[in-house]
Amino acid sequence: MPIHEDILAYNATQSETDQPICDTLSKAIDRHLKGAECKIWHRHPVWFLDGNPIVGYSKLKDCIRLMFWSGRSFDEPGLEAEGGFKTAGVRYTDADQIVAKDLKRWLAKSADIQWDYKNIVKRKGKLVRLR
């Protein structure tokens, strides 16, 4: 699917330093996460497979944070625990910090290793592994 116009608009509102980070991330995610739906979700760009959130990024005070909902299960150096449940991510302050081969590998794992966030409310906060 093409990158949603709301995500392109989100990227365009970022600072001169952050916009190239967002553009690089959105293009890579779109290229490597085939069949994913993308949209602004909770005010941030997020990609979904079968309605399940997989990856997204957001502007923090001093960086852009790339987050994988199932990232703690990837067993990957460079991804740090972020937030609750199984989320892990990396923070960027410059587009040059994005290592394309790492990002491609993480995105492949994000399609293969998934926890069911889509139904977390229905399961009263219990996560179930999908793949």
Number of strands: 6
The SSE string, one letter per element, is: HHEEEEEEH
Gross morphology is globular
Q: How much of the polypeptide forms β-strand, as a percent range?
A: 15-25%
Instruction: List the total number of helices.
Output: 3
What is the correct CATH architecture? Alpha-Beta Complex
Please give a structural write-up.
With 131 residues, the protein is of the alpha+beta class. The protein has a single domain (5-112), classed as Aspartate Aminotransferase, domain 1. Helices cover 27% and strands 24% of the residues. The chain has helices at residues 5-12, 18-32, 100-112, and strands spanning 37-41, 44-49, 52-59, 64-68, 80-81, 88-92. Strands 1-2-3-4-6-5 form a six-stranded antiparallel beta sheet, with helices on one face. α1 runs antiparallel to α2 (18-32). The longest helix has 15 residues, at 18-32. The two termini are 22 Å apart. 29% of the residues are buried. The mean pLDDT is 91.
What's a quick, concise take on this entry?
The chain is an alpha+beta fold and 131 residues long.
Describe how the helices and strands are arranged.
Layout (H helix, E strand, L loop, with lengths): L4 H8 L5 H15 L4 E5 L2 E6 L2 E8 L4 E5 L11 E2 L6 E5 L7 H13 L19
Antiparallel strand pairs: 1-2, 2-3, 3-4, 4-6, 5-6
Helix pairs in contact: 1-2
Structural key phrases:
single chain; 131 residues; alpha+beta; 27% helix; 24% strand
